[in-house]
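Dear colleagues,

As part of the handover before I leave the project, I'm documenting each prediction I ran so the next person doesn't have to rerun anything. This entry is a single chain, and its sequence is reproduced below.
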Amino acid sequence: MTNAVVVGSGPNGLTAAIRLARAGVEVTVVEAETRPGGGTRSGELTVPGVLHDECAAFHPTGVASPYLAELDLARHGLRWRWPEIDLAHPLDDGRAGLLARDAAPDVAVTAASLGADADRWRRLVGPAARHFDDLAAEVLGPVLHVPRHPFTLASFGARALAPATWLARGFADEPARGLLTGIAAHAFGRLDIPLSGAAGMLLAAAAHAVGWPVAEGGSEAITRALLAELADHGGRVVTGHRVRSLAELGEHTGHAAAPDLVLLDTAPAGALEILGDRLPSRVRRSLARFRYGPAAFKVDLAVDGGVPWRNRKCRRAGTLHLGGTAAEIARVEAATARGEMPAAPFVLVGQQYLADPTRSNGSVHPVYAYAHVPHGYTGDATEAVLSQIERFAPGVRERIVAVAAKGPAALEAGNANYVGGDIGAGAATGLQVVLRPRATRTPYATGVPGVYLCSAATPPGAGVHGMAGYHAAGAALAGLARRP
């Protein structure tokens, strides 16, 4: 039987392993940490009985993923849960831009919050939201393919090519401007450059079409479902073993020889370490030039009674973006990308317990937050995060029962793929937005026979959708079929 080793057990590593196992390959997944899952792990980080997501938290691309849908992970206990309002963007004057799930983006809560800009929002986001299934199939599909929905893709591309700041300037008032700019900031980078509007457009359309759900029981429920699916097809997982070279992998296959296939769910830095001089020089140079983006500084809170947001509708929102006006967000994101730590960074807040009450312990609820900070930032941003929350929710500090903070170094220590604290798997700038990890027709191939890269550093990029692993496994199977 053909055998394979997948290095790394994040969502892409597990989906790659599942596709190989379903094709009849004997698969072993080797994970450096003691718990599998990569960015989809959860735990009691503050007080007993209060469950926090350790990294990935909201899953619009997960619920939209063609491969996760094909696997029918509900059979293994995965349940998606939605909040009443998917997203809120509070402002200092007490108003807030709100976004709620509805494929036509004319649901009353969204339109009412945007006022005079509601029609403009419909015209900008509506086409992508109404045809989101077709759009998702295109953007989550292979890099090189004949589009099945060319008009949908072209319509989206015409808007997504623009800088996020340009798109925001099309609105008359701040709720819509801030709402779109805050969504675009998920890309971790400057918002005044071409293609910086792409993430905002895609995630806004996803929010209307499929929502920003959470996994019941924490994001680790996704990992448990994928592990169960892999086990159904004979795959196995080894934890607590950090792979540093190809020579180590033979011992995990049960065969004397090296595995027939190796898939690396690692950052390019990890691939460079593992493959070393086996990499062709041109590939080694390209991977060494791969650019990593700004970092996250994560703060988890246990809050008695929840966060007292000034705008009461924010108390029903699963996700909140804290950064003020669109101009303010663009300014601090540019500073962060330059390596400067802003006094009031952009902060994302999660209230997953609103959709999934199982995460709370009585009146004590988990509140998830992270700030965008410079790559490799070594300072303590805890106070900056708390100040941003207090800015829009006066009195929140009095309700905080416990705090757990992790800076970039701690995030990387727990997941080597987060190089310098970059949880987005690479800078979303320049050609690297679309040509990652290097400019080639086959972005999963490493140039080493039988070895493929399957992490979020490959297309279609970050997100718990598993499509990078799916496509990499397809490339590996096609390469295996071509061998003499």
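The longest helix spans residues 467-482. The chain has a mean pLDDT of 92.

All the best with the project,
I.
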